[in-house]
Structure formats: C-alpha cells, structure tokens
User: Fold this.
Amino acid sequence: MLEIKNLKASIKGKEILKGINLNVNNGEIHAIMGRNGSGKSTLANIIAGRDSYNVTSGEILYNNRSILNDTPEQRALEGIFMSFQYPVIIPGVNNTYFLKAALNAKRKHQGKAELDAVQFLDLIRKKLQIVGMEEKYLHRAVNDGFSGGEKKRNEILQMITLEPTLSILDETDSGLDIDALKVVAEGVNNYRQNDRAIVIITHYQRILRYLEADHVHVLIDGKIAKSGGEELAATLEEKGYGWLDN
Amino acid sequence: MKFLEKEIKNSPLFGFDKSVNTKSLQMKALKEFNKYGLPNKSWEDWKYSDFSLLNNMSFRFGLRKNISTLPNPFPHIKDSNQIVFFNGHYQKNHSSINNKISIETIDETYKENPELIHKIFSPNTNPFHNINSAMINTGLTIIINDNEIINEPIHIINYASDIDEPTMNHPLFIIKLGSNSEATIIEHYYGSTNIEYWVNAVTKIELQKNSSLNHIRLQEDANESYHIADTEYVLEEDAQLNSFHYASGANLYRQNINVNLNDIGASSSMNGLCLSNAKQKHDHFITVNHLKEKCTSNQLFKYVLSDAALGIFNGRVIVKKDAQKTDAKQSTKNLLLNNKAAAHSNPQLEIYADDVKCSHGSTTGQLDNNAIFYMRSRGIDSKTAHLLLINGFASEVLKIISNKNINKYVNDQLSYWLNNAGIT
Assistant:
C-alpha cells in the first residue's frame, strides 16, 4: 500500500530525513519509534502533504502511484489520514459541521451521495460511542476547550468516521491516561481491517500492549536504524535507544 | 465646501416655519462647521480617515420622487416592519408599520415637536454632525410607548440607486424607547449605483428605564460612496442595549458611536463586523461613558481585511467617579487576508473610580496555516478551508443577533462577500 524509497527531506536547509525506506502492506500495523527530533513527525507530515518540508530526493508511492505532487486534500480523499500529534483548534468552526464537510467531501470523491444532517447525526452518534465521547463535543468548535485526551479521541473519531485506508497516528498515545489509551486503542482495533494499514508513531511501547504491531522500526537521526517484530519494542523499553547509536 | 451653502436652502426644513428659527439654527450649524472645515490627517481623532477629498467634490440632494416598484435586488428581511427610503425620500407606499409603533418622517416631527430637533441642532465637536444639522434632508422619528413590546423588527432601508449626478443625504433618525418597552430596529443602508454619493447620518437613540433595544446597523452602501455616521445612545436605569454594526460597503466609512450609561444598572453590548476589500477604509470611533454605578459595557469588533483595505478601531471607555462597580470589556480582532491590508486598533481606558472591573485587548493576525492544513488533511479543499476559517472568525460576533431572520440575512451577506473576496 505504502512504499517509501530513499526519502530525504529538509526544513529551512536542514536535512531531517536522510534516506528512509519503508514498505507497508494491506492489513499491517507498523510502529515507528524513536527519540524526539529523530524525524518521526516529519515523516508523518510529509506523507500527509504538509508543504513546509522540502523533499530533496526519493519517492513515496501509495497504491503504486507517487503522491509527492498531490495536495493534502487529494491524499486525504484517496484514503490517507494522519492523526495529529497536536490537534489544531479551529475557532468558530463547529465540530459537527467540520466532520460532515470532511465526510461529504470524501463521499463525493467516491461518487457516493452526500449525507444530510439527520443521516450524519445517526452515523456520528454510533462513532461517538466507540471512542467514548459525549455528544456535547460535537457542538463545540473543533478542539476548542478540549482537554489533551479529548483532542486525541476526536482524532480517532475523525479516523473511524472517514474510514481511511492508511492511517498514520502521530504520537496519538502521548499524554493519555490509561483509560483514554485503552479507548484510543479500541478505536484503532475497531478500525483495523485486512484492506487497511496503520503506522503508529510513538515514543513508548505502552500502546503496543493493546495493539499488535507486525513491524517495529527505530528511527535514529533521519534513518531507520533497526527493524524487527514486537520483541524490538520490548527491547527498546528495557534498554532505551542508546545501544542503537552508531 | 461651497456646494453646502448652495444646497442648504433646498433642505426641506429650511425656512419651514415663519419664525426663521430652524433656518437660523441650520445656518449656525453650517457656520460652526466652516470654522474648522473637514477633518484631515492632522486631527488626532481622524488621522486615518481623511475626508478632505470631499472639498473638491460637489453633491446635491436626491430627487424627491416616489417609486412605483422596489428596485431589484432589494434587501428584504423576513417578518419585519419595512420602512423604505429611496435616495433619501420616504416611500410611503412601500412601507408598512405595525400600528403599535409611532413613526413620523423628520418633516412631520418638525411640525409636531420642533424643540426635539432644535436640541439636536446645537453645535457638536464632530464636524459631520454639524453638517447633518445644517443640511438635514431626510429621516425618521420612532417612538415605542411605555410597556410596549414589539416583536417584529423595524427595518429601515435607505436605498441609493438610479442617480445621475453625485448625490448626498443627511438623514436624522430619532429613536425613543419608553420605560419597560422592547424593540428591534434595523438601520440599513444599501446602494446599487456607480455614481458617487455621500451619506452623512446622525442617529439619536434614547432608552428609558428598563427598556431593551436590539439595534442592528447594516452599512452596505455602493463601492463609490462615502458613508459617515454619528450614532448616539443614551441609556437610563436598567436599560439594555444590544447593538451590532456591520459594514461591507462604501469606499470611505467612518462611524462615531457614543454610548452614555446615564443611570444605575444600564448595560450595553456593542458588536461589529467589518468586511473590507479593495482600498476600502472602515473606521469606528467609539466612546462609552460609564456615568453611574453598576453599569456594564461590552465591545467586540472584528475586521476581515483583504486586498489593500484598512481597518481602524478606536475605542474609549470612560469610567466616571460615580461609576463604581462598573464592568467594562473591550476587544478588537483583526484578520488580515493579504500583506497589503492593514489595521490600526487603539483601545483606551480612562478610569476615575476605584472599584471597577475593566479589560481591553486587541489582536491582529493572519489565517492560521496549521488550521488550514488540518482541514485539508481531512479532505476539505483549500478554498473551503480558507472560507470556513474566515467564516469561523466572523461568526463569533454574529451570535449577538438573536432574531433568526436578521441573523440569516447577515450570514448570507457574509457568505456572499466571502465567495466574492477572491479566495482560492
């Protein structure tokens, strides 16, 4: 589904990604771990299409097609989703309106009929239950006045509503208490299907106790320094990242 | 401005009575204006709004004619009492008013109650107020009796169109709400013409004890126009004012707003939205006087500035010695859509009492790129994301309009403006 080939990228002249190679197949969960500043979030943002980074070489193929020239909205409509490390507050834009606009943009792209207000509310109420959110959050502005945990749940709510094929969860587990973490993990498990794939970017092994990752990668200084199975995450938990330096 | 002297005799009030009283007051007002002339950049209170260009122009009063059909498009607001002026002339046939509301044209008021107008004609520090007193050619008096609750809004439409030479209007609106009364009044200016015109309005609003007014002022004059307004509110004990000031029209626009919280427990909420593009200048100069204790005032003005537009906000809150327990808030927020657009905000507090709660603040910024990216990453196209964000910024201030038909009208105008603001 996702093929990243020797991807190099810089921001303001500073090279952050120094040649990333990654293959993600249908049905897989990949975890990318690493210290702060190793390039994890940069990788997520480049896949989602943020234009503040300069891709200097390499390629990102999604369903065998290069997406580097696609706008963020094209990528989203084609099924790529990124859960933000820091979900953005959008003052004055109602959460329901936002979610409905996003879902209908996608439905339109897929040639499906757009949902009206009643149909949308029916759908979103079911999704709210999955992530354990109260309906009042629908009536607020997007992420406005949400706690850290509520913002992350709102990200997962968006994911399970938009039903992307490739989800990149950028530190969705950071700052969550154990209950919120379980709910988020449940949301992700609920979303998991054979034709979908998930890339989890995280500092900690914690979330991997609730989600079974097929592959674990360690990113150090803009490169994948080691890849392995779940046991790699356990080793990292025990030993830290130091043993992988050099 | 020689044309004023030439045209003053055509004011319908000029020489209306045999006692020459009004005539002399009008001449006096013109003399008062001529002492200082038009404000220019060297006047501190007018430094961003230079109207000296009016010196080189010439305007006449519009023709006082009755129109058979309303022009199209016409800014109807559903379920309202509609009062129509066309180029300054009252259109009785197109106006329909609930019989519980007492309205008179300014000429009629003059016949019945000349003192009321004479009082307003006294010299004023605002030069345009003096011009209005001298040149008054149109307007209305609305009186809501004690204990009367008027549910349907009173919609006054000042429509400018179908003119073939530069035209001016100097309307005077006098609005009085009796004790315990309630009303919603829309003071609406709308223009559709390519010929230059000048609106110089004065509005005097008095809220007696425990009365409540929603005053919605909509300025949608044509792009080739100049709009100057002086709006004064006087609130007695426990009176409540909710006002909303919308401006998207006119090339040069300046509104002076004065609020006098005259007695205990009066409260005023002043809100504004300016949508400015091209080279428009939209300027609000607001003074709120807290004169007695336990009064509250709240101001929130927002500007959306595109192209090379300029937004100006000057808000002064004065808390007098006797105004203990005052609660005053003031805020202005500017959104710049373009590098050439600019905003000048100057909130000021003058406090002479010691037990008060006052705050003020001003922010100016551009659209948040993170928010745009966030929306786009959910499949919302770039243009829609921009529009949603601007709409979100502006809509905060529209919440004050509780009447759903008026709210819809303003929201529709906002959407129309946004869709034509060249956002891609």
About this structure: Residues 2-244 of chain A form a domain with the Rossmann fold fold (CATH 3.40.50.300). The CA atoms of residues 205 and 233 of chain A lie 6 Å apart. Chain A has one domain: 2-244.
